[in-house]
Each structure stands twice: as structure tokens, then as C-alpha cells.
UniProtKB/TrEMBL annotation:
Catalysed transformations (reactions): beta-D-fructose 6-phosphate + UDP-alpha-D-glucose = sucrose 6(F)-phosphate + UDP + H(+)
Family, per entry: Belongs to the glycosyltransferase 1 family.
Annotated protein name in UniProt: Sucrose-phosphate synthase
A Pfam family of this chain: S6PP
Length: 1040
């Protein structure tokens, strides 16, 4: 507290007021607390827990009052308010403790139930290893994923890739992205992640075997940002060609691809991007499809070259990558960078905001759900440190280190995991290019003498910009490089420097805090931090000892490190928590010893480099002592510098990329099944052994049906020659659809013709995805939509529903609607895809044909029978508490949809609770309440009605921008997925209102994910022909 005069005065005032207060008129605070020490309370409970700026403002108001009596009353009221804040904080902390206790119980219960299913005795093997090399798991016992246990193994895997020509897609959506002159620190979205993903793309493109890398981001055409962010494509020139061994091609290299989505002419912060994610996914799908064809012509012999992996960075890109991975059936990788659950816990600990307030500000629950989905979909989760796995990822429902070890032990012993899966956690520290760095060997005085003798090599301009602040620029420089964000803890650093006289006498302090023109134009939080720092500089009279330049360019950052090294200075990162700490590696590469926070990634960096000291970021004295020790002990400084330079190669980009590619090589290759390209690795081992159908997931039937239902002869593309595999899949599908499609599908039947051509030629495709309160109302709405379309040949129709194909057939009969009026039927909430058939000689079944390619397309991580048993057990537990309200509906269940009847929707847990239960048990699925809550459908995790439309785009070329989706005002719990994207949407007023109750207990409100200002969404005033035509006219679909 030394030097905090206002705090000392405040304490004195509290002490003074104590004896003067009449016991009978004591405050609520004194009455409730009894023997209360205001001083001790203030020190222990307030100073450490609340923002000083707010307290100081209150103190100024109190000190301005006149008269002892008035002043005493004011101070007492202040004391009571502070106590009330502390009580609220403790209440929030108590609620959080209870929530964590409940979470532990849920997790233990989930482990027990999962272990009960996996009944084999693996007590010895289940002890497992540490969660540092986590495998993805499945049911098959035919293969086991080898672990990368040595450098030789990794080199062998990388060598296998040298003859390949791989296409890799990276996604990073928020912030301002460009290859040169990055505006790092411009705002909270444009930071270390932007630099990392750009350098990763650049480095991967130079690796042998990698042909092209696309970094997908948002195109920004706003007037307040540079024009370069509106350029659709930017090629990233390689920093070095020493590792580039492959033959260059027309489209090879690394590229930033900027795709438009969200509001035009506006730069949007990441918290507000969620409603526009589907639009990005559709545009990215179009780019990848087009690029795959281009690469196919160049290097694929005419066959499309699909991405070998899609890598999402941060939660928003993880959500996008999961949808793209599901639409394309390619492996997904994920890097969180910073995690929502960890941030939520940190904010709750501060006690300044409730959970609802935090969710409103940061859209934190939507972010957490995106991270959970990324765990569901990812083959590999890449982390920078082990701490991220053990302390942050374990907070998520979808990852449990204990259950992971059990699953890994079973995989090693070749025992079924009963449909349970865990993503593979891999620690790969970020890389850096060192070829251009020449560590400085001289000192400040020697360099100044040489510059006097040799004026031809002037100092970089940024040096003079920094040194102009110092009265003695020859002193060692303590360098901090971070934006003025509270979590970066720069204010504690300035206090430590200001209150340590020996440190001030020995060193200068340089603070590189991004770029600014005017403090008043900065974001509120950053402006507050910067003003606090300026006040501290004034308070401690640090003028001539602290530099805080307003501007610097990205290419000048190495010069700043060099200046600090010349002065024999120290680099410090005092952040409260640092996920990794790339600046620490950069500083070490320039020969700077480091002082860093002991929380997070710096621990792993220090373990490798051994080039500095770790400190408690909350301990101001510890920070000052560490800095003083390094700048005063020249032998220690030289030893730390030497160690850093000696070991820094372990963090190079080539080393990073070798490990990265070796992990991709471990993934089981996946891509669209009807057009396979030989990109498989030699002797591949399956990364995710699947369930009972996994061994036949490569089957391709190539169903191609013309719009009029005519069956034409066609040629099969790469059809699997295994008759047994085909038969297994066909029999499984037919069995679980209860013969609904009769004999309409034959495993040796190739249905070709004009489906692809006809889908592309349709002017518009009307997707009827209306969920009525009464199923019997659906035929009427179908008829009205078809009548509004005028039954033109240029219009196509798709029915998208939660109903089974048998129910659909009954509905069509009741409404006298022919199945041949439709081009496709998306049934069971998106788990089944059918086409109409006009051949009446195919047997007694219904007039539909199932797309078996779609079945294998969505089969990824499907839990099969293990999932069904868990759902039945859940239903029984609900029935024990509430009576017989949930029952399995075998008549509507199919191979990829387990359906349950719900008697009373008000008595069953909300969808988020059932989804959490499945994730805790490592079961990956998509849980949907349908038909006003009377039906529960559980389908594959990456299947949905929206994803089925993207499949039709990839499979048949159906342009998504020509799709018009008809939906009600509300619908099933997958309702939000139907409204976003590049397609047009007509919302039918008065339809589906009874489904609103299904959305009343969501993790996040619909307005956080729906763009209500989207011009592609219109509302019809009713569902009659005239209302529908008026809406279609607004959208420009029909004239007149």
C-alpha cells in the first residue's frame, strides 16, 4: 500500500469515524458484523478485489463533503456499500462453488455409467498415461492408432508426405488479417492469434509435400480500416525457401482468402460475429469446392483435390470448421488460443458481473458451445502447453482426462469403446522464423562509438522514438510488449518499477502498448488501463525513466528487441494468465533474458529455454526482485542469454510444421465418398476406429436421379469393389428403416443421369422446413407453397422434416401430393436423405430411394448401439422420477437416428442437459426435441437439416444462394440452423408458436445467433398463397 495516499487517507477516515458513531445508530454493517474492523476488512476484502479507479472516485466524493457529522455519515454509507458489494461477490462465489460441486458429481456419475458399459476388467491398463497424447476412440478393434514416440517415427511420417501434394485449410475469422505490416494491438481482436495463423500458413506452404494452404478470414470493407483488408486474395510470400523442396505450381503457396459475411462496410468485433457464421460456412464451402476442382485439374489428374484437413482457430472458427468438416467429410483440427470456460471462471471470480451480465457482454455461452462442438468434431486439438490441457480443457463436458485414459487403455488392448470418442490432445508450441535474426553481441557504448565512426548505418527510427523518453538511454531496458488490457497486468509492473528505487536507478522501462492516436478514441477498457499507467508514471515521477511511444510498425518489433538486448536489458511478460507467450520466444531469439508469469504457457517455455525467472503476477515485490536480479547480476544475465540462444531452435517454424504434419498423417483420410482421390498415406492406421458400420464407410453408390424420376444408365465413380461392405450397409439401413424403402435400393444398382445437371439448372429450390403445431397441417402448407411457386419447371422442392420417411409418405397421401413433385426428402431431422422413385416394379416398399453415400457421409463418431443403450438408460431414469413419459420409438428409429416419444415435454430435461450428459460420457451426437417437444431425435453430431442442404450442394451442385427455406416463427431445437447462411428464408407468421417453449431454457438466447437484420429473411403475414407470393416478391424470387 506504500504510496497510495488516497487509500491511507480513506483508512484514517474510517478509523476516525468509528468512535464518533452512536452505538444505537450504528450502521447495518456494524450491527450485522459485531466486532468489525473496518481497516482489516478494507485491506483484506476490498483492495484486492475491486477496481481502484471506482474506489478512488467514491473517495473523492466523500472527501469533498464538509463538516464532521456529514462526513461521518457519508463514510459510513460508503463502508456499507463496499460491504454490500463484497457480500454480493461472496454470494456469487458461493453459487460458483455449488455449481462446480454439482459438475464434479455429474462427471463422476458419467464416468461410472460409461465404465459400466465398458465392463471388461482393465484396472491395470486404465491407469493410463498423462493426458499429453490423447487418441480419438471408437468401437472397432481392427486397428490401433500408433503413437509418435520418437523423433525417428515423426521423421518417417513426415517423409511419407514429401511426395504428396496436400491442400490444407486454416480458418481465423476475427481481427484484421494481412501478411505484411500487421496492425497488432490495434484492438483486442487483432493480436497474437493473427500473427500466429499468418506465419503458420506461410511456414506450412514451404514444407515438402504441401502444395497449397488457404487461410480463410473475413473480408472487411469498412471506411475506418485499410483498403487491403477488402482484397479477396493475398498471396503470402515465403520468408525463406530453404525448406521448400516441392515443385511450384500455378496455384501453389499460401494465401489469405477473405470471404464476405456479416454487415457490409462495417468492422465487427468477435462477440457480434456469431449470427453470421452460417453465411461464412456457405461461402467457404463454395471456395473450397471451386479450389478443389482447380487443384484437381493441376495436380489431381482431373479428380478434385479435397483438403487433407481443416483447422479452426478460436471458438468462432472452430464452429465454422466443424460445419465445414461435416459438409465435406474431411478431418478437422482445432486450436482454442483462449478458452471461454476459463474466461468465464476468471470473470466470475472478480465478482463484478453476474453470469447473465457476462453472457450478455461476451456472448460467452455461445462461445463455450462452439468449443464443445469443436471437441465433438475434432480429430486433433492442438494446444501450446500442457497446462492448457490439464487446467483449461478439463473444464469442458466433452473432455475428461480420466475417462480419456480409460478409453486409451481399451484401444491399446483392442477392446470396444462402445461408441465413445475423445479428441486427441497434442502439445505443439508455436513456431518462429529465426533466419533473419542476428543476436547482438556488443553493448550500447561500443555501438554508439561505431556509429560515430560509420554514419552509413544509421539506427532504426524506432530507437530514437524510444530513447527520446530517457534521460539516460544507456541504462538496461526492461521491455514489455502488450496491449493495454487489464489481464496483461501492466499496471502492476509499473508499480513494481516505481516503488523499487534500486531498480529505477539501474534500468529504464519501455512499454510498447499497441498503436494509438487519441486515448479518447480507444476502447473503454484499454483507455482506462492506459490512463492508470500514465497516472502511475506521474505519481512515482518516472519521467525520463519510462518510454511509452504512441506508434510502432510490425516490422519494427525486431528492432525494439535488438535495442533492449544492446542495453543488456530484460523482457517481461507479467500477464495474470498467458496461454502461451510468443513474445517470450521472440525475445529469447534476440538474446534477451526473460521474466514471465508462472501461470500458463511460460512455464513450458522456461522449461525448454531456461533463460530467465518465473514470478507470481500478483506479487508486486516478486516482480521487482526478479527484474533487479537479472539487470544487476551480469553473470546470471549472460547465462540466461546463452541458454535462450542455444535452445531457441526448438521453437522454429520448421520444427513446428514437422510435428504438425506428422499429426495430420496419423488421421484417417476422409473426404466426399462418391469422388475419392488417392491421398491416403502409406499403411494408414485408423485414427478413429468406428462402430459396427465403420469398416464400410467408404462405400459409394453414386445415386443419381433425374428430377422427373426417370432412371438412366450411368457410370459408377470409384465404387467400392467389396460386395460384402455394400451388403452390410444396405442391410443395416433397410433393417433400421423397418423396410420403409422396400426393395427400392439395390447394392449393385447405379442410378445415374441428370440429377447433378438438373439441380444446377433449377432457378430456385424451395425447401419446406415448416414444423407445424399439428402434423396434419403440413400438407396444406405444402400445397400453398407449391401453388405460390406456380409449379414452374424452373422450381424444385425439398421437404425437410423431423418425421420419418413412412410418416412423410402418409402425409403426402393425405394431401394428395405426389412424391415425384419433390427432388429430395430430408427426414429424421437430417439423418436420412431420400429421393423419389417412379419405378413401380421395385417391390412392395415405399416409392423412395435412400442415399447411402449420405449415410456414410454423416457416420463420423456415431455411437451406434452404445449410444442407444445410454439413451434408453437415461429414459428409464426420467421415467423413475416423473412416471412413464419417455419411451423408445423403434418404428421411427433408423440406422442414424434414435427416436423417442415424449408424453409430457414439460417434465423432461432441456436439450442442453441431455447434450451435456452425452458429452460427459464421451458420446458425440446431435440431440433435437421435435414436434413441439413430443419427439426426441438423436442423430450424428455433424448431421442436421442445414448440413443436408450443404451435402446436396457438394454432391449435386445445388446452388445454396438459389435456395428458399420456408420455416415457421419457431420450430424444433435445430431451428436456428435453418435461418442462417446465404440462402433466402421466408418465415410463416403464426406457424410453430407452440415450439417456443422448447427454446425457453437455452444456454444462450436466439438473438445471439440470429441476424434479424438479414435482408434475405422476410416474414409472410400468413401461410396462404397470396401471403407467400408477396414474401417471394420481396426476396426477388418471383415477379408481380
Amino acid at each position: 500500500m506504500a504510496g497510495n495516499d488516497w487509500i491511507n487517507s480513506y483508512l484514517e477516515a474510517i478509523l476516525d469515524v468509528g468512535p464518533g458513531i452512536d452505538e444505537a445508530k450504528s450502521s447495518l454493517l456494524l450491527r450485522e458484523r459485531g466486532h468489525f474492523s473496518p481497516t482489516r476488512y478494507f485491506v483484506e476484502e476490498v483492495i484486492t478485489g475491486f477496481d481502484e479507479t471506482d474506489l478512488h472516485r467514491s473517495w473523492v466524493r466523500a472527501a469533498a463533503t464538509r463538516g464532521p457529522k456529514e462526513r461521518n455519515t457519508r463514510l459510513e454509507n460508503m463502508c456499507w456499500r463496499i460491504w454490500n458489494l463484497a457480500r454480493k461477490k461472496k454470494q456469487l462465489e458461493g453459487e460458483e462453488v455449488q455449481r462446480k460441486a454439482n459438475r464434479r458429481l455429474e462427471r463422476e456419475r458419467g464416468r461410472k455409467e460409461a465404465t459400466a458399459d465398458m465392463s471388461e476388467d482393465l484396472s491395470e491398463g486404465e491407469k493410463g498415461d498423462l493426458p499429453s497424447d490423447v487418441s480419438a476412440h471408437g468401437d472397432s478393434v481392427n486397428g490401433r492408432m500408433p503413437r509418435i514416440s520418437s523423433v525417428d517415427t515423426m521423421e518417417n511420417l513426415v517423409n511419407q508426405l514429401k511426395e504428396k501434394k496436400l491442400y490444407i485449410v486454416l480458418i481465423s475469422l476475427h481481427g484484421l488479417m494481412r501478411g505484411e505490416n500487421m496492425e497488432l494491438g490495434r484492438d483486442s481482436d487483432t493480436g497474437g492469434q493473427v500473427k500466429y495463423v499468418v506465419e503458420l500458413a506461410r511456414a506450412l506452404a514451404t514444407m515438402p509435400g504441401v502444395y497449397r494452404v488457404d487461410l480463410l478470414t473475413r473480408q472487411v470493407s469498412a471506411p475506418d480500416v485499410d483498403w487491403s483488408y477488402a482484397e479477396p486474395t493475398e498471396m503470402l510470400s515465403p520468408r525463406t525457401t530453404e525448406n521448400s523442396m516441392q515443385e511450384l505450381g500455378e496455384s501453389s503457396g499460401a494465401y489469405i482468402i477473405r470471404l464476405p459475411f456479416g454487415p457490409k462496410d462495417k468492422y465487427v468485433p468477435k462477440e457480434l460475429l456469431w449470427p453470421y457464421i452460417p453465411e461464412f460456412v456457405d461461402n467457404a464451402l463454395s471456395h473450397i469446392r471451386q479450389m478443389s476442382k482447380v487443384l484437381g485439374e493441376q495436380i489431381g489428374g482431373g479428380e478434385p483435390v479435397w483438403p487433407v484437413a481443416i483447422h479452426g482457430h478460436y471458438a468462432d472458427a472452430g464452429d465454422s470448421a466443424a460445419l465445414l468438416s461435416g459438409a465435406l467429410n474431411v478431418p478437422m483440427l482445432f486450436t482454442g488460443h483462449s478458452l471461454g470456460r476459463d474466461k468465464l471462471e476468471q470473470l466470475l471470480k472478480q465478482g463484478r458481473q453476474s453470469r447473465d451480465d457476462i453472457n450478455t457482454t461476451y456472448k460467452i455461452m455461445r462461445r463455450i458451445e462452439a468449443e464443445e462442438l469443436s471437441l465433438d468434431a475434432s480429430e486433433i486439438v492442438i494446444t501450446s502447453t500442457r497446462q492448457e490441457i490439464e487446467e483449461q480443457w478439463r473444464l469442458y463436458d466433452g473432455f475428461d482426462p480420466v475417462l480419456e485414459r480409460k478409453l486409451r487403455a481399451r484401444i491399446k488392448r483392442g477392446v470396444s469403446c462402445h461408441g465413445r470418442f475423445m479428441p486427441r490432445m497434442v502439445v505443439i508450441p508455436p513456431g518462429m522464423e529465426f533466419h533473419h535474426i542476428v543476436p547482438h553481441e556488443g553493448d550500447m557504448d561500443g555501438d554508439m562509438e561505431r556509429n560515430d565512426e560509420n554514419p552509413i548505418s544509421p539506427d532504426p527510427p524506432i530507437w530514437s522514438e524510444i530513447m527520446r523518453f530517457f534521460s539516460n538511454p544507456r541504462k538496461p531496458m526492461i521491455l514489455a510488449l502488450a496491449r493495454p488490457d487489464p489481464k496483461k497486468n501492466i499496471t502492476t509492473l509499473v508499480k513494481a518499477f516505481g516503488e523499487c528505487r534500486p531498480l529505477r536507478e539501474l534500468a529504464n522501462l519501455t512499454l510498447i502498448m499497441g498503436n494509438r492516436d487519441d486515448i479518447d478514441e480507444m476502447s473503454g477498457t484499454n483507455a482506462v488501463v492506459l490512463l492508470s499507467i500514465l497516472k502511475l508514471i506521474d505519481k512515482y515521477d518516472l519521467y525520463g525513466q519510462v518510454a511509452y511511444p504512441k506508434h510502432h510498425k510490425q516490422h519494427e518489433v525486431p528492432d525494439i528487441y535488438r535495442l533492449a538486448a544492446k542495453t543488456k536489458g530484460v523482457f517481461i511478460n507479467p500477464a495474470f494468465i498467458e496461454p502461451f507467450g510468443l513474445t517470450l520466444i521472440e525475445a529469447a531469439a534476440h538474446g534477451l533474458p526473460i521474466v514471465a508469469t508462472k501461470n500458463g504457457g511460460p512455464v513450458d517455455i522456461h522449461r525448454v529455454l531456461d533463460n530467465g525467472l518465473l514470478v507470481d503476477p500478483h506479487d508486486q515485490q516478486s516482480i521487482a526482485d526478479a527484474l533487479l536480479k537479472l539487470v544487476s547480476d551480469k553473470q546470471l544475465w549472460a547465462r540466461c542469454r546463452h541458454n535462450g540462444l542455444k535452445n531457441i531452435h526448438l521453437f522454429s517454424w520448421p520444427a513446428h510444421c514437422k510435428t504438425y504434419l506428422s499429426r495430420i498423417a496419423m488421421c484417417k483420410p476422409r473426404q466426399p465418398q462418391w469422388q475419392r482421390n488417392d491421398v491416403a498415406f502409406e499403411n494408414p492406421q485408423p485414427n478413429s476406429p468406428g462402430d459396427s458400420l465403420r469398416d464400410i464407410q467408404d462405400l459409394s453408390l453414386n445415386l443419381k436421379i433425374s428430377l422427373d424420376g426417370e432412371k438412366n444408365e450411368g457410370t459408377s465413380l470409384d465404387v467400392d469393389d467389396s460386395a460384402d461392405s455394400k451388403s452390410k450397409l444396405e442391410n443395416a439401413v433397410l433393417k433400421l428403416t423397418k423396410g420403409a424403402i422396400g426393395g427400392a435400393v439395390k447394392a449393385d444398382q447405379n442410378i445415374g443421369g441428370s440429377k447433378s445437371h438438373a439441380m444446377r439448372m433449377k432457378k430456385y429450390i424451395f425447401v419446406i422446413a415448416v414444423e407445424c403445431d399439428s402434423i396434419s397441417d403440413i400438407p396444406e402448407i405444402i400445397g400453398a407453397i407449391m401453388e405460390a411457386a406456380g409449379r414452374e419447371n424452373s422450381m424444385g422442392f425439398i421437404l425437410s422434416t423431423s418425421l420419418s420417411i413412412s410418416d412423410v409418405h402418409s402425409l403426402l397421401i393425405s394431401g394428395s401430393i405426389s412424391p415425384l413433385d419433390f427432388d429430395a426428402f430430408i427426414c429424421n431431422s437430417g439423418s436420412d436423405l431420400y429421393y423419389p422413385s417412379s419405378n413401380s416394379e421395385e417391390g412392395p416398399g415405399l416409392p423412395f430411394m435412400v442415399d447411402l453415400d449420405y449415410q456414410s457421409h454423416i457416420d463420423y463418431r456415431w455411437g451406434g448401439e452404445g449410444l442407444r443403450r445410454t439413451l434408453v438408460r437415461w429414459a428409464n431414469s426420467v421415467n423413475e422420477k416423473q412416471g412413464q413419459i419417455v419411451a423408445e420409438d423403434e418404428s421411427r428409429s433408423t440406422a442414424h437416428c434414435y427416436s423417442f416419444k415424449v408424453k409430457d415435454p414439460a417434465l423432461v430435461p432441456p436439450v442442453k442437459e441431455l447434450r451435456k450428459l452425452m458429452r460427459i460420457q464421451a458420446l458425440r451426437c446431435h440431440v433435437i426435441y421435435c414436434q413441439t417437444g413430443t419427439t426426441l431425435n438423436v442423430i450424428p453430431v455433424l448431421a442436421s437439416r442445414a448440413q443436408a442442404l450443404r451435402y446436396l450442394y457438394i454432391r449435386w451442385g445445388m446452388e445454396l444462394s438459389n435456395v428458399v427455406v420456408f420455416a415457421g416463427e419457431c420450430g424444433d431445437t435445430d431451428y436456428e440452423g435453418l435461418l442462417g447462411g446465404v440462402h433466402k428464408t421466408v418465415i410463416l407468421k403464426g406457424i410453430g408458436n407452440n415450439s417456443i417453449k422448447l427454446h425457453s431454457n437455452r444456454s444462450y438466447p436466439l438473438e445471439h445467433v440470429l441476424a434479424f437484420d438479414n435482408p434475405n429473411i422476410v416474414q409472410a403475414q400468413g401461410h396462404c398463397n397470396e401471403d407467400i407470393r408477396a414474401s417471394l416478391h420481396k426476396l426477388g424470387v418471383i415477379k408481380g
